[in-house]
Design goal:
- By secondary structure, the chain is α/β, with parallel strands linked by helices.
- It is built from six helices and seven strands; from the N terminus they run αββαβαβαβαββα.
- It has a domain of 135 residues: Glutaredoxin (3-Layer(aba) Sandwich).
- A five-stranded mixed β-sheet has the order 5-4-3-6-7.
């Protein structure tokens, strides 16, 4: 007759999984794992920021989607129909092709600061022309039809060439502008040496005229 095992003898091994007390939270992940996950998240964020930053960098040419044409770069060339009719307004033909410095002004007839500034530009240009100066003035009327632009330039006394940028391709896409008036100062080789956003004061304009003409 088989005898029951003694109470003190070892029984068969217990293969049941350890029991977790009810209500006990699972153990937290190791510190190394958490640090690794945090590092991955930070790396992903930095990669996105870098991509966005590179995608929004303004090109030096001032092309569409970029910033304002920077000082020290070539002024982008353009040809526009003349507001007053006649030959188209070609920037390079007026300026660097003839080794002439240029004051290039962007304006609109409805712009109040432009209304204050344009007569000053017109009178200064007339004075330079009467002196036989090499300095050339070029205007660009932005986003308007001839019916609005022509009376304005006539009233202001403008005699220099003014191009009609009705679709804002030159002011916006080529030069990167988003408001008027804006003026670029271009040397005889076609390089932008200065830029003014907002209406020019007389002393400021006179200073640029002297600089571009060598004081003559």
């Amino acid at each position: 007759m088989t005898q029951p095992p003694d109470a003190g003898s070892a029984g068969p091994p217990d293969h049941r999984p350890p029991q977790v007390p009810v209500g006990t939270a699972p153990a937290a992940p190791p510190r190394r794992l958490r640090a690794f996950v945090v590092g991955l998240v930070l790396a992903a964020v930095l990669a996105v920021l870098l991509f966005v930053g590179l995608g929004s960098t303004s090109p030096s040419s001032g092309t569409a989607g970029g910033g304002v044409v920077p000082i020290g770069t070539m002024a982008p060339d353009f040809t526009l129909p003349a507001v007053a009719g006649g030959a188209p307004v070609h920037l390079a033909a007026v300026g660097r092709s003839r080794h002439h410095p240029v004051i290039l002004n962007f304006f609109a007839s409805w712009c109040v600061p432009c209304q204050q500034e344009t007569p000053l530009l017109a009178s200064t240009a007339a004075t330079e022309q009467a002196k036989g100066s090499v300095l050339q003035f070029v205007g660009v009327d932005v986003g308007e039809q001839v019916s609005a632009a022509l009376p304005f330039i006539t009233k202001a006394g403008i005699t220099y060439p003014v191009g009609q940028d009705a679709d804002i391709q030159v002011a916006g896409a080529l030069y990167g502008l988003n408001g008027e008036p804006q003026t670029f100062f271009i040397d005889e080789s076609g390089v932008v040496v200065g830029h003014a956003a907002g209406p020019l004061k007389k002393a400021q304009l006179v200073g640029w005229v002297h600089r571009l003409t060598g004081g003559h």
